[in-house]
Amino acid sequence: MPETDRSLVARARAGDAAAFAALLQRHRAALARACPDRDLAQDAALVAWLQLGRLRDADRFGAWLAGIGRMLSLRERRRRAASRETLTATGALPDAPLDERDAPPARVLAGERAGELATAIAALPAGQRDAIVLFHLADLPQAAVARRLGTRPGAIRTRLHKARAALRARLTTQEEAVPAQITDVLRTPAGRHVVVLATGDAELPIWIGAWEAEALAAGLEDVELPRPSAHALALSLLRAGGRSVASVRITRLEDQVFYAEVVLDDGAAVDARPSDALVLAVAEGVPIEIDPAVLAAASDGPADEYTEDLARASRGGAATLAGEMRDRLRERA
To answer: How many domains does the chain have?
Structure first.
């Protein structure tokens, strides 16, 4: 006996791509009638996949999918029929990207990469994912997207910018990340703090705050804290939501500032300060990676007071910081 739409929708919502493919095959003819353009039909399928959680009646999946196709077809006809479009004050078309790099990667469903793009969009944070779907696929103007999502147009512009950057980074072939490990957390003679990451043949120092340095030292040296830290709370909230940290990556270096990502077990990447990301990596025992471009950029910088200060720092700083923390805890007890 064939599965019902309801059971297939339930499986698809749980991440079963084969179940969603079965739904598309079952309702392909109805979608084609509602949306004869093959590219737009692919767009409709992707919108349905990403917005499946919004379907109220699982038994009406076919009608819902066809409705998405009709909406996209209608918008495309209106676009083609328009004799002219009013320009904005900057000379750009309304809601059109001002920079080609801000356009959706290639065409939103470009040929063989449709599945890869769908996975990349699905991995975006919910707010960014909804903004991308409504603006680029459902073709709503930013003001309408803002109304749908209950926020301001300015917030939608920010979400779209971040989502496009994340999609470009994920869909662009990159060099393989370099595995790294924390070798020490130092306090310099000038009172600054730095975490030292080591790869096979190089070291990467990252300057951090005193509080983060102690949090790293506590994790590396197994200091038992009387109460959960903010990082422990973040990990507990992740677990309560059914997620966990899979890895941490130092992603870029711009204007002497390092940036990082915390990668979750479902592939989602969350922007983070390197210090916070590394504390989570130590607490969870997950891999630490560095983008090769970061290593190259860090090696180009000239010597300054920071590098000279670091050169004078004594090794074994993590143990020293951990010992000081234990002494303070004993005094308070």
So the answer is: 2
Res. 276 pLDDT band, cuts 50 70 90:
very high
* 58 and 165 belong to one structural domain: yes
**CB-based contacts of 277, cutoff 8 Å, min separation 6:** 248, 249, 250, 260, 261, 262
CB within 8 Å of 165: residues ≥ 6 apart: none
Look at residue 89 in the predicted model and tell me its pLDDT. Answer: 40
How many helices and strands (H and E) does the chain possess? 15, 7
When comparing pLDDT for 96 and 278, which is higher?
278
Half-sphere exposure of 84 (CA within 13 A, CB side): 3
Q: Which domain holds residue 190?
A: 178-332
**Is the distance from CB of 121 to CB of 132 less than 8 angstroms?**
yes
Residues 152 and 246 reside in one and the same domain: no
Q: What's the pLDDT at 137? A: 65
Rg of the chain (C-alpha set): 25
Residue with tokens 């004993």: 330
Domain check: are 115 and 229 in the same one? Answer: no
Q: Spell 105-140 as b/e; 16+ CB within 10 A means b.
A: beebbeeeebeebbebbebbbebbbbbbbbbbbbbb
**Strand extents, DSSP E, 92-131:** none
Residue at a domain's end among 135, 153, 171:
171
pTM for this structure? 0.50
* Tens of pLDDT, residues 198-211: 987 788 999 999 99
Clarify whether residues 183 and 105 are in a common domain: no
User: What is d(CA 273, CA 296) in angstroms, rounded to the nearest whole number?
Assistant: 20
